[in-house]
Amino acid sequence: MRSSSTTVARLTTDAATAARLQNALAECCDGETVAVSITGSANEPWTILLHFHDQADDTAVRNLFASIATEAIGQERASVLTRGLVLAH
Fold it and tell me: In a designed cystine with 40, which of 30, 46, 70, 86 is the match (CB 3.0 to 4.6 A)?
């Protein structure tokens, strides 16, 4: 039996940015291999989560996120946010 290894990418930001990034990421990601979600509340930071069905290459995930974020929120903000991206396997 093959063991399954997954990757989760997590980023914390404000509600408006989380919603914009969720929409942009959901448009480009295949829902069968990557699930995109956000969670948060009015008084707390929001978190964007990307759940990869299989183990993902860290560099590829960061590049994907940076590319999508740059288009959604601009290069300067995307650069700052991408540095806060946390990946777990």
Answer: 46
